[in-house]
Amino acid sequence: MRIRRAMEPAQPPSDSLTIHTSTLFDSKSKRFLPNLSLTISTKTGLITKVHTREEHALPNHNLTSPGTVLDLRGLTILPGLVDAHTHIFLHPYSETSSLHQMRDESLVERVVRATNHVKAALLAGYTTYRDLGTEGLRDADANFRDTINRGLIPGPRMFVATECIASSGGYETRLENTGPGGATAPRISDPADGVYGVRAAVRRRLCAGADVVKFYADYRKRALRFPSGGWPGVRNPNVLLFTQEEMDAMVDEAHRSGAPIAAHAQSPEAVVMAANAGVDTLEHGHLPSEEALEAMKKNGTIFVPTLSVFDVSLPGGDEGTRRARKAILGHTKAAFDKGIKIAAGGDTGAFAHGDNAKEVELLVEAGIPVEDVLQAATLHGWEACGGDRCGRRFGYLAEGWAADIVAFEGDLTRDLGVLRRPVFVMKDGKVYKGDLEDSA
Ligand SMILES: [Zn+2]
Asked: CA dist 203 to 40, 165, 241, 414, Å?
């Protein structure tokens, strides 16, 4: 579909743009609203006004003063999508394992790949990324974020974690076999121990440019003792990496500094500890547990179940895999039914950037209503990034919020496949995708 743009060359250059819509998703009420027009400041990238048009009144572009009008009627409009768990420096594990990416790919290669990744994501309608760890590139995500913010490359608005915090020996490339020549594996976390040590680590991360702090509450760290496939039926177990006091201290330190904090946790025990510590978001947490859900509910934790990464890591279609997959989806649905707030984040990078909609599809497959999933992929994404601590509002289309707008042809509630085909993408009032047609 061609999107009509009415230009009036005689008018003085304008900072304001009006967008007419006929089906716009309200991510707070979870309803599609008709006949709304938005006015946008292209200077600030914010929405300055939203008003309802008379039902049958066609907008007269000559009367819409001043300047430029975009007619998005006939399309389904969503706030720009938010992927709440990404890794821009990773590409699909099906191409190269993360270990080999971290160890063998150069800084330059990984940055060039990331440049392609963020462009693909933006054109897929994802205007915000919460990027949770560089996986071996230290603080390069903060610098990368800044290149997007300075307009050097197109990409989503980024909130980054720099390195994740783990206890000593908790999250690192395994070194048991390191020879006398010394380690060649890159550092993949900022190690810290003890309540003072972990506070210092939070301060280091924020100083390095982190918008959000991330720590590993647990990890399957005994990879060499339990090699995958080595001992059939024996799994590399999750090991708790911090004490309750250490987790409490990290959360306190992040919050004192006005930063949100996220925890990687897989075992129910780690989920409970991280939730009780007061983390803003809980990543993964896939093992079915009523106690884990209770803790998240009680503490108002946002749950980011990262269904996509589990989906790509469950190989084959055998009975065991099917059962594991069903259990993960069922646990996510149980969290939703309990009233736990869910944000959509795929652990994107483990699979291709640009395929971010996969997480939305899996949340719907889990049995969560489409409208709630769209809220998880927009407004709840903003909350996962820190809400008002972000310094910008996005994920909802109203006055004072960012003009992040994505448009689709078709009805998302009937055909979710539509989500894979955005025809228009705007971030901060700037159009990145759209077959715009000039007319007088
Ligand atoms: Zn991740």
From this structure: 37, 11, 19, 47
